[in-house]
Amino acid sequence: MRQFYINYSIRQTPSDEFKLTWSHYLKLMRIADINERNFYEIEAIKNNWSLRELQRQYDSALYTRLALSKNKEEVISLGQRGQIIEKNKDLIKDPYILEFLGLPDKSFYSESDLEQKLIDKLEHFLLELGNGFTFVARQKRITFDERHFKVDLVFYNRILKCFVLIDLKIGELKHQDIGQMQMYVNYFDREVKLDDENKTIGIILCQDKSESVVRYTLPENNEQIFASKYLTVLPSEKDFIKIIKNS
């Protein structure tokens, strides 16, 4: 089979072979920052993104969202290796972009409406969650002391070998919501996970949150529970800049 070698001058790719379509590379060549460009190329190859999915991930600022919580060396690594999941926080984005649900910003909908939309668009949601996620259950019931509780969504991450619980909250996050997720995580760790599996991760998706409430409710060494905002419309470039500055 004849091989074609990339020769555009802006950078040398990891393998020097065309592994994407020419339309993919035309899109990549328009990304000015070399680390960001490399990241999207690596992820597009690794995850077999279509051109539409590459455009969607770029429009939703995936690189920027992942880079927000990383130091300089880790940001450089994103451009060299793509997204590498080695620890719990590597899974987390803030915010999550859920524009594929078709829900207008600040419309009136319930948590059950949001959950149903995510189930209806599960394939899209799995792409937004990231690498290694598989769906396990919705409204997973847990019972003790004759009391019943339900976890909105349960996933399993094959890379970290752990359950990932997601709770959906409309409006601003409250400290009681964090306490509830702590209870869910503790239950899964003690009653559900196997001995060779890692500790459960809990993600609370909310429309708004106070960083101080999150910080002082969780222990300083927290590595299991995370609170992230979600957006139901794709922000403009101006709005993304505002989000970045406030993060």
From TrEMBL:
The source's superkingdom equals: Bacteria
Q: Does the record bear Membrane in its keywords?
A: no
The residues covered by the YhcG PDDEXK nuclease domain are 90-238
Pfam families annotated for this entry? DUF1016_N, YhcG_C
Q: Where is the YhcG N-terminal domain?
A: 1-65
Q: Name one GO molecular function term.
A: endonuclease activity
Sorted keywords for this record are: Endonuclease, Hydrolase, Nuclease
Classification via PANTHER family: NUCLEASE YHCG-RELATED, UNCHARACTERIZED PROTEIN YHCG-RELATED
Q: What is this protein called?
A: Putative nuclease of restriction endonuclease-like (RecB) superfamily
